Amino acid sequence: MPSLISPAERDYILKGIECNIRADGRQRPDYREVTLETGVVSQTSGSARVRIAGGTDVLVSVKAEIGPVLVDPETGDGADKGQIICSVECAPSASQQFEGRGADELNNELTQMMSRFLSHSGPAASSFLSTTSSSSSSSTAASTTAKTTSGAGGINLSKLCIIPGQQCWILYVDALVLDYGGNLMDAIFMGTRAAIYDTRIPKTEVQDLGDGQFEFEVLDDAEDTEEVAGREDMPLCVTLNKIGARHIVDASPLEELCTEAKLVVAVNRSGELCGLQKGHEGGIEPSLLLEMIQSGKTMGQSLIKQLDASIKKEAESDLAKRQRGEPVHKLGFFAQ
Amino acid sequence: MDRKRVAGPELSVAPLIEYPVDHKRWTPQQEKRHDSKRQPEDMRPIYLKTGLIGQASGSAYIELEKTKLACGVYGPKPVKRIGQTFSGRGLLTCEIKFATFSCAKRRNQMRDPQEKELSQILTQALSPAIRLDLLPKSAIEVYITVLESDGLGSCFSAAITAASVALAHAGIEMLDLVAGCSASYIQTGPARSISSGAESIPPQIFMDADLEEEKYEQGSIVLAYMPSLNEVTHVLQSGKAEGSIISQSVEHCVEACNKIYAVMHHALLESVKENQTQL
């Protein structure tokens, strides 16, 4: 990960982008080749590894654990919801700049962005929309009423609840950056989507012991597991880098150094925007901002389609191999 | 454990308030704002004053009803930190700190991840406006203390506004002032649902939402904008929304930023006048 760029090199990149040809032969709206693999870490509930051809390598793992629900004391919200806790860590081995506390700021920025895009739970007291929920405590148990507004993260948090007001599943989504080749955020989100698709949560059996007492049992049958509800609606993000008067996607590290301003656009499959954040130290004109949002949106949607197709293909081929009794070979880490 | 400080309780819980029987909590169903005097596009009145912190090179204090924060700017001064490589550009560091008593729940004295992120975002929002290229080998420090927070979005946009006024007050060369503005998308009618196919009403955009309104928000946006250069220096949106809502709210925010700009102008002119009378 270089930290400085010479004026000559900057000029070369700038002029190239103006002519719609980039240093590696791509055009402005082109992505590099992405390698994706799921189910790479056996200890997790779901995992995925994403490699972008230029060098970015991200490993995302999802671990499902049981914990207490988090309730807002004022609105009483959250009693029937599970949680998603995100974290991003840049491994010191990925770049010399990540050594020691060097990656702290980047880690924090990426972690906060990821949690904002994934665990934004929508309006706090969404129960106000259903007409009969005047007594809020009883309505929490009746989570069968289809929630009208799911959060930006897409994942149905109510389905992660085991006993309303007491226990829920907590999904820990941890992304580990193993190698840095630009465009981290997109890679992390692709990896997260794939890892959530790979995630299987054990089923639970709740017993009512009477007078408000509940007990539950986690079924430890490997076959009897659930997928994460609402995973199709998870957003994917597209990072647009404004260089000169143009904008590009999937920037390489050198292009990132020339970037005046970058815009991260999170979008879901139906084209709704789930988050927006500007980065870097430059400005964008409002008209260009709207144009960038629009192109990020269309690009994100096509990216989701391609990603889903490749996840499905991999899952099918794995299943076919298992049925035939052949061992499933994974490429593993750092594989090209 | 920090032994120098009196430790507060480890866990803090907002007090349970018993409301009178006839008390009704505000819900967006009424299609009115929490503050009934305001229209959806109205902001709260802004009080902005410079020069209230004597020690700082420049300072500003901003109040939007219950959102109150102070900002102090120190510098430009030589970069002190050892190990810092030579930089041809000035170094801007921002620090935003919520006072422990500023929110409903007590906040820790230590900087939490959210504060760290907001500080980073603030740096990104302000640096396009400052002529950092004129200040090699020097550093500018911006400190913000939130005294009272009434909604995170409004608090953050107020921080941007106050910081840029304080920077101007410190006499640091800038291209333009940065005004910050926030908006929330709130569903005031039946929400769009995929299954029932009910009548859909797009969420309403409430400018400068307060805490009570933020609780019902579907999403929110914070925009930092330089009015005379017509440039957006930062945008932060969370929650789900249609593209049309976003473009609409960006327009609304730009409009509101122009209004805030007038207030900022006024505050700076006042400070100049005060200086003149002192001489």
UniProtKB/TrEMBL annotation, chain A:
It is found in: Cytoplasm; Nucleus, Nucleolus. GO terms for molecular function: mRNA 3'-UTR AU-rich region binding. CDD domains: RNase_PH_RRP42. Residues 31-202, 233-297 form the Exoribonuclease phosphorolytic domain. One of its GO terms (cellular component) is nucleolus. InterPro entries: ExoRNase_PH_dom1, ExoRNase_PH_dom2, ExoRNase_PH_dom2_sf, Exosome_comp_Rrp42_subfam, PNPase/RNase_PH_dom_sf, Ribosomal_Su5_D2-typ_SF. Keywords: Cytoplasm, Exosome. It comes from the Eukaryota. Residues 128-149 are annotated as: Disordered. One of its GO terms (biological process) is rRNA catabolic process. It holds the Pfam family RNase_PH_C. Belongs to the RNase PH family. This is Ribosomal RNA-processing protein 42. It comes from Mortierella alpina (Oleaginous fungus). The gene is EXOSC7.
TrEMBL record, chain B:
The keyword Transit peptide does not apply. It comes from the Eukaryota. Residues 42-173 form the Exoribonuclease phosphorolytic domain. GO terms for molecular function: RNA binding. CDD domains: RNase_PH_MTR3. The keyword Nucleus applies. This is Exoribonuclease phosphorolytic domain-containing protein. Its main location: cytoplasm. Residues 22-41 are annotated as: Disordered. PANTHER family: EXOSOME COMPLEX COMPONENT (PTHR11953), EXOSOME COMPLEX COMPONENT MTR3 (PTHR11953:SF2). It is found in: Cytoplasm; Nucleus. GO terms for biological process: nuclear mRNA surveillance; poly(A)-dependent snoRNA 3'-end processing; rRNA catabolic process; rRNA processing; U4 snRNA 3'-end processing. InterPro entries: ExoRNase_PH_dom1, ExoRNase_PH_dom2_sf, PNPase/RNase_PH_dom_sf, Ribosomal_Su5_D2-typ_SF, RNase_PH. It comes from Mortierella alpina. One of its GO terms (cellular component) is nucleolus. Keywords: Cytoplasm, Exosome, Nucleus, RNA-binding, rRNA processing. Belongs to the RNase PH family. Pfam families: RNase_PH (PF01138). Signal peptide: none annotated.
